[in-house]
Automatic annotation (TrEMBL):
Region feature (Disordered): 1-85
GO annotation terms (biological process): fatty acid metabolic process; lipid biosynthetic process
Keyword Transmembrane in record: yes
GO cellular component, one term: membrane
InterPro entries with a match to the protein in the record: Cyt_B5-like_heme/steroid-bd, Cyt_B5-like_heme/steroid_sf, Cyt_B5_heme-BS, Fatty_acid_desaturase
Organism taxonomic ancestry: Bacteria, Bacillati, Cyanobacteriota, Cyanophyceae, Gomontiellales
Name of this chain's protein: Cytochrome b5 heme-binding domain-containing protein
Keywords: Heme, Iron, Membrane, Metal-binding, Transmembrane, Transmembrane helix
Coiled coil segments of this chain: none
């Protein structure tokens, strides 16, 4: 892996347990706070996100009491090897959660990975009772407000995932959750009732049982095709295995949202079975960056597929497919090894609490990618490489387009270029999630679509309630979310059909437009594809996959 693409994790330092101490008094719930939190300067604020469902009804109540302080400069990116303090930011105050890593009920990963980040939004959206969490972490308080040097400018993530001038201190949306009249609280008040929680648990059990059946069907289908005595023709095998891969990635999609504890550390890596992601990385990028901060500069999903626009348009399908074969054969293994070595360098204690709790993540990731590679080898040995390649390309491209189909990223580009300032503290977080997400429909049945869309059919509920353990739980919760959203003046638009309403637009936006080089220089179609710089970029992109660069 090239040095500039390495994950930019910084060494951590051990910190002794802190004595229990009290935070400065907090005002009663619902009343304004006199605290002034560190600012997000206007020049660094993320661009606004428009509504996908405009309405003339009254807007939801304004939230948040954060007042901007005079502009202050964010810290420069620390040099490699320069440690940052052991600090987590919550509600504008600094905490040292080092000793809490092993105690976190949701798993060690989520605490270790959010060091030097603001966890206010994460705590409030993923926990049924954020106030209980706040009381629990009180003993780890450092009794001071957050400072710029507490935040890692690139979120301890690969810098290429963000815009060049991204800075975690200035660009992180500072949502406020002080106002208990916000939509999220109204929804939680209903779904957290004991009888409804029992219904949710039942739906989760059904979802898990279907997941087990899908795993059995997955292996049975491949055996039936490869077995010499089998009569399963390729024209039936290919659509069957594509559907099963996408459905199983939908199971994995929800597993990475569950607590990363026990066997789930291994099973969550089934998310990678559609050839697109690397769950070892995506559990952070998807769960901790995309969901809390949808459509902001922190949301790496906005740019997850834009690198392909560097390629001349008619090269994109074959070159990106070759790029992803490189991931399958070598690149993902190099990325896993790189992360494993970085864990050695940084220390497993600071990321996972100990190697005992970290190794299962790596074993699961290595296992799923060895399985994918073994499948390729088996098909080649049986003289069926062509069949494997067809199912690979279909699975890859449908899955890739599904990633960007559930949000209107292509339409947001113009909004981003406008650089209009936005005060996130006055935004209702749950309202923003609903307005900036699409539900997808594949064949029209919600339960089947939940698997056929890789878990994206009940997508708006999934964004409002990212802690829920299954797509079936989200389907059950939809009526509650819709009813409460309508009280806030939100029009609940119909789901969009992936094949009819989203795929043609995405195809045009990502595959039919000229390359960036051609646009900037006004090249014609021939020069776009034959210009030396275009050919150089094409070759570079093709082989980056074989080194592990560019994985989602």
């Amino acid at each position: 892996m090239s040095p500039e693409k390495q994950i930019d994790l910084l060494p951590l330092t051990d910190a002794p347990p802190l004595m229990e101490r009290e935070l400065p008094p907090h005002p009663p719930i619902g009343q304004p706070s006199n605290r002034q939190l560190p600012p997000h300067p206007p020049s660094g604020q993320p661009s606004p996100v428009g509504s996908t469902a405009p309405t003339q009804q009254p807007q939801p109540p304004q939230t948040g009491n954060r007042q901007p302080l005079p502009e202050r400069e964010a810290p420069p990116h620390p040099a490699d090897g320069t440690p940052l303090p052991n600090v987590w930011i919550y509600d504008g105050y600094a905490y040292d959660l080092t000793e809490f890593i092993l105690k976190h009920p949701g798993g060690q990963f989520f605490i270790g990975r959010t060091k030097n980040r603001d966890i206010t939004t994460i705590v409030n959206i993923f926990h049924p009772n954020p106030e209980k969490v706040k009381r629990r972490i009180q003993k780890y308080a450092l009794d001071r407000e957050a400072r710029p040097e507490d935040i890692h400018p690139k979120y301890n993530a690969p810098p290429f995932l963000f815009k060049e001038d991204f800075n975690g201190w200035t660009d992180t949306p500072n949502y406020s959750f002080d106002n208990k009249e916000q939509l999220l609280y109204k929804i939680k008040a209903r779904i957290n009732k004991s009888d409804f929680k029992q219904q949710i648990a039942h739906q989760d059990s059904i979802f898990d049982a279907i997941g087990i059946l899908l795993v059995c069907a997955y292996f049975a289908t491949q055996w039936a095709f490869l077995d010499a005595n089998s009569q399963l023709p390729a024209y039936l095998f290919i659509p069957a295995i594509v559907i099963l891969r996408i459905a199983l990635s939908g199971v994995g999609h929800y597993l990475i949202h569950r607590p990363q504890v026990g066997i789930n550390k291994v099973l969550a890596n089934i998310f990678d079975i559609n050839y697109v992601p690397l769950a070892l990385v995506v559990t952070d990028g998807h769960t901790l960056l995309h969901h809390p901060y949808t459509q902001s500069e922190v949301d790496i999903k906005k740019s997850v597929f834009t690198a392909i626009l560097e390629l001349p348009r008619y090269y994109r399908i074959p070159i990106h497919s070759f790029h992803k074969i490189g991931h399958l054969v070598a690149g993902m293994f190099l990325r896993i090894a790189d992360l494993f070595l970085l864990t050695f360098k940084i220390g497993a204690k600071d990321l996972y609490g100990s190697w005992q709790y970290g190794v299962p993540h790596f074993l699961g990731s290595l296992g799923i990618h060895l399985l994918l590679l073994a499948e390729l080898v088996l098909f080649m040995l049986h003289g069926a490489f062509g069949v494997w390649l067809i199912q690979f390309i279909i699975t890859l491209w449908i899955s890739t387009f599904m990633i960007v189909a559930s949000h209107d990223f292509e339409h947001r580009a113009a909004d981003d270029e406008a650089e209009i300032e936005i005060d996130w503290s006055k935004k209702d977080w749950a309202v923003e999630q609903i307005r900036n997400a699409y539900d997808l429909t594949m064949i029209g049945n919600k339960y089947l679509d939940c698997f056929l869309s890789a878990g994206l059919s009940p997508h708006r509920v999934h964004h409002v309630l990212p802690q829920q353990r299954s797509g079936f739980a989200n389907i059950l919760s939809e009526n509650i979310v819709r009813e409460e959203a309508e009280k806030f003046g939100i029009t609940w638009v119909e789901p969009k059909n992936f094949f009819i309403e989203r795929l043609p637009r995405l195809f045009n936006n990502y595959l039919a437009v000229p390359s960036r080089l051609a646009k900037e220089n006004k090249f014609g179609i021939i020069k776009e594809h034959l210009h030396p710089q275009a050919l150089s970029k094409t070759l570079e992109y093709a082989f980056k996959g074989w080194t592990g660069v560019g994985s989602i």
